[in-house]
Amino acid sequence: MFIDSALSKIDTKIFTDNFGAIREDYIKMRNYDFFIDYSHEYDLTAANDDFLGFIPTLTMEHPWKICPLIFNRKIIKRTPKQCQECFTTELLLNQPIQPILAVFSILEPGAELQPYSDGDERIDPRYSGSSVIKYHFALDIPSDGECGLVVNDHQRLLSTGDLNLFDEKLTEHYAYNTSQNRRGVLIVSYIRDEVLTS
Q1: Can you give the pTM of this predicted structure?
Q2: Residues 106/29, Cβ–Cβ less than 8 Å
Q3: Per residue of the chain (198 residues), what is the pLDDT tens digit?
Q4: Alpha carbons 18 and 91: distance in angstroms, whole number
Q5: CB 66 within 8 A of CB 39
Q6: Contacting residues for 17 by C-beta, under 8 A, at least 6 apart
Q7: Could you give the CA distance from residue 10 to residue 150 in angstroms, rounded to a whole number?
Q8: What phi, psi does 154 have (nearest 5°)?
Q9: CA distance 75 to 62
């Protein structure tokens, strides 16, 4: 089920009030082609503390692509400087509560992901028994078809500017894009115990 943003210890205005600058970062990274294929088979317990240290050979044929910004509350030194120094990365890392993962995400036209649970809590071994709250911020949602986010049996059709929160460990989720254009969002993962009031 989705979570009411009013329960978040993070002021969600850091997303909504900065929509324009965050979206501009997304468009820049997309235009630079800094996106890579993503799969749920990556080892998020990588010892080198670097998201790109365990990415397999890329095919660029996967329907889901990401531009990684933050891994385990740090910039990712193997990403281009534009990623490390962009407004969005600096905004998220300058907050009292920092994310364990942040990525810009593209879902290609006609794509539908299978239900999954990411297991992002494994990134920080101190919280391996906890769960993660995903902040899913819609930046570029096509209007020529439906783009949806489904958490358990609850479906939300996305519109540009939407912010949706959900617990990814307790619930399987998936996304789809029936349009003829790419769907772009910012996905930010926080440890549940750090960000929810109840």
Answers
A1: 0.92
A2: no
A3: 899 999 999 999 999 999 999 999 999 999 999 888 876 566 555 555 666 665 555 555 688 899 999 999 999 888 899 999 999 999 999 999 999 999 999 999 999 988 877 778 888 888 878 889 999 999 999 999 999 999 988 999 999 999 999 998 777 899 999 999 999 999 999 999 999 976
A4: 9
A5: no
A6: none
A7: 23
A8: -95, 125
A9: 25
Distance CA 56, CA 59 (A): 9
Residue that the structure tokens 């531009």 belong to: 67
Q: Extract the tokens encoding 164.
A: 């949706």
Structure tokens at 175: 């996304």
Cα separation, 13 vs 171, whole angstroms: 25
HSE on the CB side for 19, CA within 13 Å? 15
* Residue 143 CB coordination number (10 Å): 10
CA distance 188 to 135: 5
- Rounded to whole angstroms, the Cα distance separating 84 from 44 reads 20
